Amino acid sequence: MSNSNWPRWIFSSVTQYFQAVANAYPIELHVEGIERDTTDKKTFIELRIDGPTTKELSHNYNKLSVTVEILWSVDMTSTDFHESWRLKGAVLDAFDDMCITETDGTHLGTLILKSETRVADYGQIKEDVQIVQGTVAANFEMFLEE
Length: 146
Known about the structure:
The chain is an alpha+beta fold. The chain is 21% helix and 45% strand. The chain has a single domain (3-145), classed as STM4215-like. β4 (98-101) and β5 form a beta hairpin.
């Protein structure tokens, strides 16, 4: 096992996990930093992953820390005033331990939810843009041997 692959496997597994959440809702999932056209799309979620940061606790035994944040965005022109609450609830419910797999599907480990999930409502962020937004975020840890 090579720790140079850990960030890629974490990114891939977390992205797949939240893609399944988005598919079940259904809503579009975007990954932060990947260009996309949202001209006509005001309702979506966007995934941001910070980390992993790695700390060697003892010889070849490591703690990996990851922060996962989902930005949710809802079109205010909808006649459904509960949409932002439903979407925020679906995202909040998804924050749980996540299985991390290697490229070939081998189980690498489990990202364990380590902090209270943080919810922030930004409301309408610009007067001339008819969307409301907010975030759901939490910290995760995983312990791996090299």
